[in-house]
RNA sequence: GGCCUCAUAGUUCAAGGGAUAGAAUAGAAGUUUCCUAAACUUUAGAUCCAGGUUCGAGUCCUGGUGAGGCCA
């Protein structure tokens, strides 16, 4: 039983004993730093059950707890806040109990249904950019967090590998490509295909210009430009299974996948299973039929099928066109059902998709609920804000996108520049240094993006984003490296197994305030993880780790560790360092960020 | 036009209806015979506006203002 559970039980007993009333719940919060105490009981909510003066009730409860609960060493009351000081022995006992748990904070056994987490889901006509980076980091991190909180997780992406966009690239490659391949050009496959998408748009733009100067209306010109008609014809051929078109499509998509794989690998993310739009774009139509019979949908006179969501405050939404073709919604309904068919242990799904699709997912989830699927209750749209640049919105047409590969390279180079200025790594080999620069650069990028609440938009300034000071990834990595350094110097103490000495500590002397603060912070890790999992929020983990690091730095500065003359105390502090290091590594692991042995 | 999201120190971010709204950065001042000064300590500085609910509102509700998005 942890301290909160113990105190909750005791407070309820106190209320029963003193006031002869039942208390439904007790509200706790960590005591603010500027007050005496460790845990605070908020008395105000109790006033609904107990009548009286909050301060007086607090005092009565405090007296009872100090008397009856050995862990409560002292108390004070400020207004309606009952601040409890917890005995040092409790913290030492707690610390000993987690000392040898390597996965401290993580839930070992899987509970409940599996969750499928979708993220990335790119189109295959362009390389990944900064927007994808935020998506991928969020999705991957949430998957890690859910896993650590005891969920079985399937990571997936749906690759949008078919449609007019890829036909445009194919067309441009046919016309201008001269048989170029990633091998002959040395370009990454996704970059090569992306270049032809740009080429297509140049051609198309020129054609529209020509038509307009020839006197055609602009709207009409945009619809009738020859290259566009040709691309549309290509898409029709693809849909009818034309062997030549399909072969080209396969070839170019394969290039793109190879390129994406490289990027994913550099980012340190992966997937358990993949879906391709070319396999799923026809799904969902049979469900519409089913929904019509259930009365969830209705057919209009022109033959199109709709769902009426006005009762839920939304509007009417089309699910099948008059000509019987699917819309995105149809496809998404079908794909969701397909996933549960493929992985029957799924009890919920997380969709990592930008907030411009908030409405779409609201409707999708509602439809699935109305169709009566049990798992539809556990669908979550992990919605995130745009990533803006100082120059404004990213637009591929205007060449203002920040490419994911370029970005990672730039971050790595910045890490290199700064590290060289500090000159701490002179004794390492070039390859060791390069590996480290990458860890730091990517750590900076990932932490910068993940520490911000997903739903808020980020203003990303590529130049200024790599800050190695303050609340940043490298700052935390540096702290970790310092801890590792201490542990290397105290190897013999780390392995020390006899815990008796720690117990003696309490008898010998009180915990140093910094030791106690550090243990308190470590203690918060499991519940932070739980909270992060419930809210799909990597930012909570990021901010927790930062707070722990702050606490550690303060400890490190004010307390001697290796220079401590008392052997037991020295062992205790080294093990404290070790535990902090483990928690930092765990926390950063959840964010997909590596930590360095030294830096 | 209808709907959705966001608004907190100069700047970038925190704050699970709770105490005197926390950090970082930029500014000012300090700390290295000791384990990594990429650190630490001190200092100044903020809830868009107007109502409401509550013992208590940055947080919840209503109406504005501003930014962004979605749907025709």
Sequence-ordered SSE layout with sheet pairings:
Layout: H1 3-19, E1 28-30, E2 39-42, H2 54-68, E3 72-78, E4 81-86, H3 88-98, E5 114-118, H4 130-148, E6 153-159, H5 164-176, H6 182-185, H7 189-213, H8 218-224, H9 226-239, H10 243-267, E7 273-276, H11 277-280, H12 285-294, E8 298-299, E9 305-308, E10 316-320, H13 328-342, E11 346-354, H14 358-370, E12 379-384, E13 387-388, H15 404-422, H16 430-450, E14 458-459, H17 473-489, H18 491-494, H19 500-508, H20 513-523, H21 525-535, H22 538-558, H23 567-590
Parallel strand pairs: 5-6, 5-11, 6-7, 11-12, 13-14
Antiparallel strand pairs: 1-2, 2-4, 3-4, 8-9, 9-10
This protein binds one RNA strand of 72 nucleotides through α14, α15, α17 and α22.
Instruction: Give the biggest beta sheet.
Output: 5 strands, parallel
End-to-end distance: 39 Å
Q: Given the C-alpha coordinates, what overall shape results?
A: globular
Major sheet strand order: 7-6-5-11-12
Residues in β-strands, percent: 5-15%
Number of helices: 23
- Structural class of the secondary elements? alpha/beta
Radius of gyration: 30 Å
Would you report the number of β strands?
Answer: 14
Poorly predicted ranges: none
Oligomer description:
single chain
Mean pLDDT across every amino acid position: 91
| Helix proportion range | 40-55%
